[in-house]
């Protein structure tokens, strides 16, 4: 799976064009439009790979890609708020329990708050790829929050292995990106390209795991390529 995911983008006849566009979009991610387009591309990757299609999508249909990316970002933001809220509530409770004291009670309360918040971050990080993938498959924003669909995926060993693989790819990409950033200008651009490549490879791993759990070949989707971009069948 690792080799397959890392080689995914290389199957495109527009490898460098796609990688450079994606890298530049990621580099200018502080402009929300660029960030939305990156996530829109990720949605395209997930949409294809979850149905067993390894054809690499192109940067096209920009308007639809922008909308899908914005929706994926909403899902990501919503899940990201969970540990923030949990941490804030626990911090407030810990403050009340400790009463501003720095004794053992205050230290214990702070430690529990930190551990629970960290655990919540891990749970959210584990769930987000599945949530965005479910949205990519069904094409509905609400699908990203459909616990009934997502829970069986999260409980599967196939998804767990794919998630760990995707995490490893992203972490490795981040390390390489950090090293390249030390090179003035060119290194920053190359680092962004590597980060985009890693994000796509990680998304491919998640999408293939989803396909392994819900094998729905493209020929059974009931839509041609044009319809596929606007009507995504639910699994």
TrEMBL record:
Q: Which UniProt keywords apply?
A: Membrane, Transmembrane, Transmembrane helix
Bilayer-crossing residues are 20-42, 74-99, 105-132, 153-176, 182-200
Keyword check for Transmembrane: yes
Q: Which InterPro entries match?
A: DUF4013
For the keyword Nucleotide-binding, the answer is no
* Protein's UniProt name: DUF4013 domain-containing protein
